[in-house]
Amino acid sequence: MITSNMADNESVECITEHERILQEIESTDTACVGPTLRSVYDDQPNAHKRFMEKLEVRIRNHDREIEKMCNFHHQGFVDAITELLKVRADAEKLMGQVTDTNRRLQDAGREVTAQTEEVIRCRIQQRNMTTTVERLQLCIPVLEMYSKLKEQLESKRYYAALKTMEQLEKVYIPRVSRYRFCQIMAENLPKLREDIKDISMSDLKDFLESIRKHSDKIGETAMKQKQAEYRCLHIYTVLGDRETFENYYRKQRKKQARLVLQPQSNMQETVEGYRRYFNQIVGFFLVEDHVLHSTQGLLTRAFTDELWNMALSKITAVLRTHSSYCSDPDLVLQLKNLIVIFADTLQGYGYPVNRLFDLLFEIRDQYNETLLKKWALVFREIFELDNYSPIPVETEEEYKSVVSRFPFHDAEIEKQDFPKKLPMSQSVPQIYVQVKEFIYASLKFSESLHRSWTEIDDMLRKSTNLLLTRTLSGCLQHLTKKPHIGLTELVQIIINTTHLEQACKYLEDFITNITNVSPETVHTTRLYGLSTFKDARHAAEGEIYTKLNQKIDEFIQLADYDWGMPESDGQASGYLMDLINFLRSTFQVFTHLPGKVAQTACMSACKHLSTSLMQMVLDSELKQISMGAVQQFNLDVIQCELFASSEPVPGFQGDTLQLAFIDLRQLLDLFMVWDWSTYLADYGQPTSKYLRVNPSTALALLEKMKDTSKKNNIFSQFRKNDRDKQKLIETVVKQLRSLVNGMSQHS
């Protein structure tokens, strides 16, 4: 018994120890499990077998727990796998979408990249174009001066050509000397000088050769004349009557001088007539100079001076008269050149010629007048041929062609693709070019007058001012008054004058480049082009307002109201809708105008329309108006108000434009609502609802409606509820008459 108990105790202790060992194995790190297992073998014999049995039991327990746990989580695992499979399909789909999106993004990126490169290329082109235009603006004056030089050389005006060369070398070429063409030009100028020198030397050789060939005849003639003159003079001297000879000679020469100074009747028609006239006079006074210096006492300096002064007075009078009949500027210019040669020739023989150069200044004014008349015809022809629409440019070459003739720069337009349109019409660059041509033509007369460049600059500016303020201004004023010039043309004229006004500073620079006289000089005359184009623009604006009102009147005349209609048509009148459509399309054209002009035109049109409608309904010839007609009229006024509120022209504040119809609106509201009690009670108050309704206006309209009330077609809707409405009307009429009479007495 005791042995059995001891065995049981040992068995329990063994089991407890095995539990401890198992717990230690389960909780101990695998690397430290060795000592624990050793304790199993160090214990009682066969203890390890019992431990192994215990271990197997423990393993089976754990297997059952694992199986139980697996069974518990198995469905979730299956669901997770199922979801994972679905996710894989979605992932593959997403991968395909990502790949496709990436491909499309790459494609779009390539397009954007290409467009970006194109934009960069266009920006570079634009920058290059701007730079080119700026460089051309610097180069054009040089080219113009060189062209002028070539023209002077072709016309054999070598002295003027030398002056032009000097300006090119000192002023123009240094500004653009880095360009190859300027270097070639500068290298060519010395050669041109040598050519002029050679031509002059050739002319001198020809002259000397001519003298050599004809010297015998000249000498023979001179000796014969001299022999006859000495002989006659000698005979009279020997006879003691030298004084008679001298008096006779002088008297006859005076008579001959008068004959020589008498011009032909048609001398002003050709330059040859003037040339013969000057040749005769030069020949006469060369003989006198020869006699003065080759004889003793036959002529005196006092006599020749007296004879020349008499001739000079006659010459200036003849030239002043005949040149005034000349209408050809080219002929006047040729006359000027002949007078200069004539004066220089006689000045070389000691004759004073200042009065001739003073006369040239008078003829210069005459020359300018002929130029102004000629350019008036040029301007009118340009205006006649203009289509008054923006200039279309299809290519870069066409654009450059325009800006080379007219200084136009607009960054926004330059960015636009071709084809595009420039805001001004074709007449603008043509007018600008012709003004420059006029300056050139005016300059031709100033050459060889022995005047300083400051004086020439002043002459050019004054003549150009006359061209702008008188000729061009007159043509523009005449243009705006022409019957065929409509609203669209007037709008274009305003745009044109704006661009011409902006170009005036370039004309200033153009003259400065010719004369090399700084515009800051104290006595420099300024161009008056700004005032010219402003005046023309104001005239065009006035014509716009007038023609716009005339068109409104034409539409108003088409109105055909049935003033006795029992009720309205339910829609606005056709004539009025046509009028509003016309105004809307017209004001769309006004978008290119300065804001103030467009707003003024729009406000003027609305006021004129409102006044015309008011006059229509108050016309003394209109005797009766039904309520239906008032309702129809109200529908038309509503359309006018809707038009005003649609902002046909931007820039109006709030309901400013709608106020143009406020008088009509308050009058119609008064009659539509039949709110006489409010009107009469609040009359004269600044807060009155019908403040803009004049009693006389209300009375006139009410009288027209009262006359139709007896026909039982106006106030039937009131009489259904109130048979005494007619009395109320009579009462209102009396009160309105009282207000009108009170106003009359007060005034």
UniProtKB/TrEMBL annotation:
The keyword Amino-acid biosynthesis does not apply. It holds the Pfam family EXOC6_Sec15_N. Residues 356-704 form the Exocyst complex subunit EXOC6/Sec15 C-terminal domain. This is Exocyst complex component. The lineage of its organism: Eukaryota, Metazoa, Chordata, Craniata, Vertebrata. InterPro entries: EXOC6/Sec15 (IPR007225), EXOC6/Sec15_C (IPR046361), EXOC6/Sec15_C_dom1 (IPR042045), EXOC6_Sec15_N (IPR048359), EXOC6PINT-1/Sec15/Tip20_C_dom2 (IPR042044). Keywords: Exocytosis, Transport. One of its GO terms (cellular component) is exocyst. GO terms for biological process: Golgi to plasma membrane transport; intracellular protein transport; vesicle tethering involved in exocytosis. Residues 54-223 form the Exocyst complex component EXOC6/Sec15 N-terminal domain. The keyword DNA-binding does not apply. Component of the exocyst complex involved in the docking of exocytic vesicles with fusion sites on the plasma membrane. Belongs to the SEC15 family. It comes from the Eukaryota.
